[in-house]
Amino acid sequence: MQIRKLFHFEAAHLLPFHPGKCASMHGHSYRLEVALRGPIQSEGPTRGMIEDFDTIASVVRAGIIDALDHQTLNDLIENPTAERIILWIWRRLEPDLPSLDELVLWETATSCARLRREDLGP
Q1: Is pLDDT at 71 greater than 80 in this prediction?
Q2: How many independent structural domains does the chain possess?
Q3: Is residue 23 part of a domain?
């Protein structure tokens, strides 16, 4: 089974190798979907859950939202395309969310990057 939690952040970036308008500084209202996969727990405080949504929120806020919201992404990520941003996010979340299964990063209402655990290989 999979559970999913949605987050938002605002950030600016420029794409230095882009031949068009994206080579100039601009901003996005990003939407981040964080999905975990695993069994429903039968014991303990997460009984009946895969993971507590509050735990997911705490990890994502501390590791991602606090780091990226209202920042210039070029200061943190080289050539911050949606694909490179989502890889950066995965690397920061995975140690604290070992059941991480999928991330979807929406850069605009119609454009997103999706990264699944299986995309990373062995």
Answers
A1: yes
A2: 1
A3: no
